[in-house]
Amino acid sequence: MRVWGLTGNIACGKSAVEEFLRQKGVPVIDADHVAREIVEPGQPALDAIVETFGREILDEEGRLDRPALAAIVFTDPSARKHLETITHPRIHARTAELLGGLARDDTKLAVVSAALMIEAGSHRLYEGLIVVTCPEDLQTQRLMVRDGFTEEQARARTSSQMAQQSKAALADLVINNSGTLEATHKQIQVWLDQQRSAHPVTESPS
C-alpha cells in the first residue's frame, strides 16, 4: 500500500483536498479526528492533559474544552510543546493501527492528513508529502469569515505555525488553493492519475 502525507496550515484548504480525495475513493485518515478520539473522557491522554493544564480545560460535562485549551497553547510555545508530547505518540499509534486495517483490506493508496505533520516529523514515515498552500492574506480572510476572528486574532493563529514556504520546500506536491475549488481539484486529479498509472486505484462515483 502506498501512503502519502497531507498537510497545510490553518485555513489553507487541507479539508477541501481531503473531501475530494474521499470522493475519488482514496481513504484519508485525518489526524484531527484521531486527536479527538484519543481525548474522549476516560482516555489516558485526557487525564494527562488535565494533570498538565488543570481542570479548567474541561467543560461542564467533563469533556475537553478545545477553545479553552487553544487559548493557552496558541500563545505559549512551551505549553503547546507539552501538549504535543502527550498527544502525538498516541495519535501516531492509532494512525498506524488504522493504516494496518487498510493494508489488510488490500488498499492500494491511502493518505494521512495532519496539520502538524512536518512539525512532528511524521511526514518522513510516508512515501510522499502533499502541502496545501494559499496566500497569507487569503488565509487571514478565511479565518475571519469561518471562525469570526478579528484580523489580529487571525494573524496570531497564522503566525503561530511554521511558515508555509518552509513546508512547501519539503513537499513532493504543492497544491495551490488560492483559486477556485475546481482549480484545486484539477491539481489533485493530476496527482491521482499519476498514482493510478503506477498502482491501480479504485475510484468511486463523484
Structure description:
The chain is α/β, with parallel strands linked by helices. The longest helix is centred in the middle third of the chain and has 28 residues, at 77-104. Residues 201-206 have low confidence and may be disordered. It has helices at residues 14-23, 31-38, 44-53, 66-73, 77-104, 117-120, 136-147, 151-159, 164-168, 181-198, and strands spanning 2-8, 28-30, 109-113, 128-133, 173-176. The chain is built from ten helices and five strands; from the N terminus they run βαβααααβαβαααβα. The protein is globular and about 50 Å long. The protein has two domains: 1-27 and 107-201, P-loop containing nucleotide triphosphate hydrolases (Rossmann fold, 3-Layer(aba) Sandwich), CATH 3.40.50; 32-106, P-loop containing nucleotide triphosphate hydrolases (Rossmann fold, 3-Layer(aba) Sandwich). The protein has a five-stranded parallel beta sheet, sandwiched between helices.
